[in-house]
Amino acid sequence: MVEWTQEVPTERSVMLPPDPRVLDSIGRNHSLETALADLVDNAVDAQANRVVIRFIRTQRGLVALYVLDNGCGMAEETIDTAMTIGGRREYGGSDLGHFGLGLKAASFSQARSLIVMSRLAGQQPVGRRWRPGVVSRSDFRCDVVTSSFVAAEFDRNWPFDSASSGTLIRWDDVSAFPATTDTMQIEAYLDHTITLTCQHLGLTFHRFLADGRLRIDIEVLDVENALPGAKVPVDALDPFGYPQSGLDDYPKTLIAEMDGHRVEFRCHLWPKPSNLPQFRLLDRSGDHQGLYFYRRDRLLQSGGWYGVHAADRRLKLARVEVDIDGDMGGLFQMNPEKSRVQTGHEFARLAATARAHDGTKLSGYFEVAERLFRRSQARVSRRTAMIHPGQGLPPRVRATIQNEIPAVRSVDPIAIRWDNFIDDAFFRIDRDAQTLWLNKRYRKMLLGGKHGGLNDVPLVKSLLYLLVANVFEGEYLGKKDKDNIEMWQSILTTAAQAERQ
Ligand SMILES: Nc1ncnc2c1ncn2[C@@H]1O[C@H](COP(=O)(O)OP(=O)(O)OP(=O)(O)O)[C@@H](O)[C@H]1O
Ligand SMILES: [Mg+2]
């Protein structure tokens, strides 16, 4: 027998406060979008119904970012707790806050300076600043910002009134901002970042955005000409927003109960793979099958089966809504960034007990989802095959065409490109180069002020592709094909000239 005891003798204790450098490591899992979602969480908890995210641009490039809300604001005492790392408050039953960390972790992950400014009706506005680089080299000393500066920041030209109360967060030296003054690069960065942020916030808060509890706008302010650019509203992106359910008796709610826990699985079926943004979500693969965990209406996790089933191409149409309340007795845990849920090993056992009123189990749902997917594929494969397009169309348009039309095998894709023509013809079919050429002299008009690029004017290109793709097939151009090309050329060239006038 080996000697072993649970008890460990100790003789005294020593005080080991954390080194402020731990701050360097918090929020490491954040991206700009998830960090902004954390600030929006706080605005929602403060009963705000408007949020604006503003990028600040000067001749030096992008320099700062603001997030303003019209929520309840903070007084002197609360703002100190708010700035405290791990400073928790009493949380209500619908609060999104939980760890007392979000604001700091999100901000420190993105910026070298966080300023929190807030005001309450009839009180002096208050402001605090943390600079994580400085905090981590000193003790936890926080700068108190003058109330006249805070008042001036609130008095800027904001798109909604936060005079009675509101909170304004400011990030300087945002690490993700490109270190350049090149206009094109900044435009490209803003374009990409605003799109990603709209998608992420649109998805995370889709329930709030859809029923009007919340409105979020994103804008860019060019300080030199003092004009805020166009506001981009964040639209709800509902992963269950299919036009019609895949089957009439779906969505179906399955209820699981075990050891006093009760969890509802609301099982949905998309009718077919779709190119709607709600189906494709944040990337183009459009395969976001699995469980969607919500806590207090905020989406924590989109997709993944958590051991309930293996990921399987044939389950593409299956998405399940699960409302949970944060940490539940070892069943679920959310990460501090609130961008993921972890489930305990009991979870799969709980899921196996799920039943609908009519007796349907999750296994039955998976079978139905697979059958529906096979049927949707069969319908597509009955369509006449076409040569698919290659270079010239945006990847998502090409992906849709791949979803909708079976491909003619072992033939190169049709490239769609611009060229200088000697005449006015709108297009030219080049079977040797497997290319559909468009006449460059109509390009500017078709772009209507937008930047050109390899994948520009997708609508015109798609229409033309659908019209002419078939003439790229076969050994020779038949008589009928030649006549068709002549007819299309005559009509489209006249139309292009008419449009140019
Ligand atoms: N926009 C805001 N309006 C009013 N109060 C705010 C705002 N942002 C933060 N606060 C206050 O600051 C506190 C700390 O925010 P922080 O995000 O760090 O933690 P939390 O929201 O309590 O929890 P979690 O870590 O889960 O986000 C909040 O509890 C709230 O009292
Ligand atoms: Mg928070």
UniProtKB/TrEMBL annotation:
Domain of life: Bacteria
GO molecular-function term, one example from the UniProt record: ATP binding
Keywords: ATP-binding, Nucleotide-binding
InterPro entries: HATPase_C_sf
One of the Pfam families matching this protein, by short name: HATPase_c_3
Protein name: ATP-binding protein
